[in-house]
Amino acid sequence: MQIAENDDFGSEEITLFADLILPVPVAQLFTYRVPRVINPFIKNGARVVVPFGKNRVVTGVVAKIHQTPPTKYQARYIAELLDDEPLVTPYQIELFHWIADYYLCTVGEVLNVALPSGLKITSQSKIQYNPDFEYYDLLTEEEANLLEEIKKYQSLTYEEVEKRVGATNINHIIKSLIGKRAIILFEEVKEKYKPKVLKKVKLNGRFETRENLMELIAQLDKFPKQQEIIMSYVSQVPIQNVPYSNRAGLEKSFFTQNEAFSDSALSTLIKKGTLEEFEVTVSRFADVAPDFSEGTNIHLTTAQQRAFDEIITQFQSKDTVLLHGVTGSGKTEVYINLAQQVLASGSQVLFLLPEIALTTQIVVRLKKVFGDKLGIYHSKFSDNERVEVWKGVVSGQFQLVVGVRSAIFLPFDSLGLIIVDEEHESSYKQYDPAPRYHARDVAIVAAQRQQAKVLLGSATPALESYYQALNGRYGFVQLLERYGKANLPEFVLIDTKKERKSKKMKFEFSSVLINELQEALNRNEQSIVFQNRRGYSSYLQCEECGWIGECENCAVSLTYHQKDAELRCHYCGHKEKVPKLCPGCSSTKVRTVGFGTEKLEDQLKIFFPTARIARMDLDTTRAKNAYKEMIEDIEQGNVDILVGTQMISKGLDFENVSTVGVFDADRMIHFPDLRSAERAFQLITQVSGRAGRRADRKGRVLIQTGNPSQKILQKIITNDYIGMYEEEIKERENFKYPPFTRLIKLTVKHFDQTTALQSAQKLTQLLLEKMGEDRVLGPQPPLVERIRNRFLFDILIKLEREKVNFRAAKAFILEKVTDILTDKTLKGTDVTIDVDCL
DNA sequence: TCCTGGGTCCAA
DNA sequence: TGGACCCAGGAT
């Protein structure tokens, strides 16, 4: 830290205070006094270390610096400043506050999801020997013994102390040692981020001249192993022709990982100084090199160009534009051109995608165009990788970031454009830990604050977005022509009831579908089979007594996974072995009911024994690169039939896929949820979009259903988005659902069912007093009424957009929820608040 | 009498 | 959230 002389801050005299965000779930900032020596250096967004409570030390982020001393208490001093440059930008602090405020959570919680854990401000207590301690006479024998143990280690947690010493009940000794200042309690605050370093070796500079090098080699005649190493170094590094190349050296692993070289000879050379060892910091993303061979200017078709121009025009009067483009219309090219234009103007671009692993193909294309400027932010990335993207955005290395919903929290300072692709996707909404935010909505707010524009793109927009586009709040651009004149696929509805009657069904497959798959195989084309349920079958049931395998923690049936002969709960992850006999009546007639991807895969292997069949779902893609490898396999034509869950519905682009089979459409349509029809439309349209992406042949989509005359299916097969929209929006209006209202869902949880219900009822009562029966619905048990042993009750609050003051209503709700949480007769009750829960 | 577990409160 | 502090009840 350099001390500025003559800075005009006038720092020496002023007393500053800092309001800090601390990692505690308390909805307030904490004011600390800034020591004068760091006055010139402290900045909003920097991390600091502060004492908190009696014996604790925590890290926090500076949210505000001011000169107003607190009146009700004495501010304590900040202990240490961790960052010279702010880690969090002022823009981010504002955005975090907005999110906390809007979604009813604490800023600390927002910070928790926003920061990669390598930068996070955690607080895990550790104890450490106090090196300044000298009053040994004050210690009891017990204390002295324990202190000796603790001295041996750098630092220990409470549990570690117990383990090392092999005794329990030592907390009181630790406590008294702390009291006597023999040991100190501290929170781990050091940065966990480790840059990736590469160990390299280079030849001592002396040998860069030809004569010296020859002489060295001659000298090593007596040490053939060492000579061999030098010779291969010279052959790898063209030191004689390009002397400069020696500076870059050669990776040490080149020698250590090749058995032909002797490790001891290498270390001797290093010890003698003939070779010098050094380390370089490398980016974890260095392996994907930019490829300009295709040129950066992607040529747009006439239709794409028109959409592009319209978007630019609309941006002049609107901050948000919705691009409605059918599947395969080439929205990506439009995005890329827009991004290039924004980047050229010097602004940053954020490109949001749902679950990025699912769209590696897009990432590869972006990487080709944008090269090193592109940062990738993804949930499967390690923490260090995320910290690198974070720092890359701060340093300006990444002008463009493609990422999942949490990428919205990155420290941009001059955003020009946010693209939200597949904006209708539900994975943009975070459900479980707070903040329960929607990345698309946060993107719109974030853009406003940076004077940036937002482009929402989808083949099947969310009803809310389409509504805003029609009523003029958003700009609206359509791209209704497939890229390269490819046709939209042809749809066939297969009546499974009829087929079953005439005994044409083979297991879950209709004869029509089997024939089409066979024909596709004959033509050497690829097929996709879609079933939005993983595992082997839905559940196990006993034919004799009706027993069904259920989770012991949640109110759901267990899914049968044949591969591991296991029953698994898809809610809490509970696993158990498949029982040999029915646990209810010891009968052997336990059968599987329903079907998932695993079962379809098995059946396909029976129908088409020679076909190459692959399955893509959560179970087969857990490993970091499994997804990527599978995609490459399909691209190279090593797969004939791909079975998968919704994972295969998004953004994949395989030219050779001609046939798509859709199973269980009825379950999607009749799922008891307000959005089921909209979701079914979106999902089936998205999957069908995988078919027939070539101009020279038409794809076929076969949908198996028990009732082909359902309205929504007709809309799907005629690709009638607008028809679907009109139907659904009418319902929304009738029943007062978004976009005509805003919904807030309160979930009341308790281990005891009666108390859960009591709490929920009491909360409902409190809310009804002011809000009225039209606005408060419930309490009712949700679809899955018990999760991880806790009973749930939902209360749904509907607020009209015009009539209700949203802020005031939320404040009221928060107040009543707090009443319940602090009610002593309802101990153990937990309530979560989900704003805009749909 | 000491120890432990549970509950409550509070942090600047 | 974590920890300090207090109280009650069990082990010693």
Automatic annotation (TrEMBL):
Enzyme class of the recorded protein, top EC level: isomerase
UniProt GO MF annotations: 3'-5' DNA helicase activity; ATP binding; DNA binding; hydrolase activity; zinc ion binding
Any single biological process term in GO: double-strand break repair
Binding site for Zn(2+) 2: 551, 554, 569, 572
Pfam families: DEAD, Helicase_C, PriA_3primeBD, PriA_C, Zn_ribbon_PriA
The reaction(s) this protein catalyses: Couples ATP hydrolysis with the unwinding of duplex DNA by translocating in the 3'-5' direction; ATP + H2O = ADP + phosphate + H(+)
Domain Helicase ATP-binding: from-to ranges: 312-479
EC number: 5.6.2.4
Keyword Cytoplasm: no
Binding, Zn(2+) 1: 542, 545, 582, 585
Residue intervals of the Helicase C-terminal domain: 564-737
Cofactor(s) the protein requires to work: Zn(2+)
Cofactor mode of binding and number, as noted: Binds 2 zinc ions per subunit.
Family: Belongs to the helicase family. PriA subfamily.
Complex formation: Component of the replication restart primosome.
Protein known as: Replication restart protein PriA
Gene, per the UniProt record: priA
